[in-house]
Amino acid sequence: MNVLFSEGVQVIKTEADRLYFIDNLRIYMTFSVVLHHVAVIYGVPGGWYYSEYAGDTLSQIFLTIITFSGRAFVIQFFFFIAAFFTPAAYDRKGPLYFMKDRLIKLGIPLVVYSCMIGPTITYLVQFDTLSTEYSFLENIYRFKNVAPAALWFAEVLLIFSFFYTLLRLFAKAPVPGRRESSFFPSNATIMSFTLIIGLITFLTRIYFPATYKIFHLRPGNYPPYIAMFILGIVTCRRNWLAGINDDVYRFWIKVLAFAFLIFIGFISYDGILYKHTVLYRGGPTWQGLFGAVWENIVCAGSIICCIYLGRKYDNHQGRLFKALSKDAFAVYVFHAPVVVAFTYFMKDVPLHPLLKFIIVFTTATPFTFALCHYCIRKIPFAGRIL
Known about the structure:
It is built from 13 helices and no strands. It is mostly helical. Helix 3 (57-125) packs across helix 10 (286-313).
């Protein structure tokens, strides 16, 4: 998502202060998106374009932990980082060029994926059924299977950017400048805010469970998305990243460890053995409350710990990571057809689902990066968009 990070250097004063670790985190999160979708193929029945759900207990526990963990913080983290660089981009470009840039770099991939890539995957995977109803060309030009799928993030980020632009245009109060330093909120404040967002998420999911879609979007997931986008903007203006110290990290790493231990116990016993996994994704049940609060605690803790560890140990880039960084958004856009192709190729191989999961992830991911680096981004004008 180069559009989200290309402005990052503009808000940093010196070379030594550049936020390379955030760019590196973007790479890791792109890997985690691919990991999540491979896990969905093997761990969730009918969860994506193609499903190879086996249903054995070991695979269910392991892949459910991966998918729930990814849903808890990865996309929220993307929204947080995107928002962090939004004020600098708007300040420099102004409202017109800011939205024009977003429409080009987010809108074009969204349209291409929704109208061409996604429908092509759907048609090929369901060829035996769909080819008897209409041709491949009819599938495309009649918009038979149009859907943003993985690119829903680009769609929502466009909407968030539009509302941010409106706010800046019509807000009467002057926009505060970026502070040189600021106190980081206390752990109690963060935890209270997290619990409030968790409760709002739970109440929202009573009516709109996380599995429920409206126009291909899941309203039950939006309280933390909106909260992280707002927090990203506030963090930029108040320079909160500089305030994440050793004490803050030690507190939240303990919270994360405890949260995951509790979650593994609940999801293994109640979720998998008693087949209540879906209840953790919404509804007026204690599982729905637990799932909503747990997700938001893991989201806050993961973002804080990742930023601390990245800033302290990973605030540099070599040639490989610079290349991976440039290709990350293209991988986000094009990983779906590669993952589905690799999984489909492996469907008749007599291996345990977890072994297939590992093989597909470890081969499809570098292949997608190589494909994007050496082919897709070499297409005329593609490099300017991706």
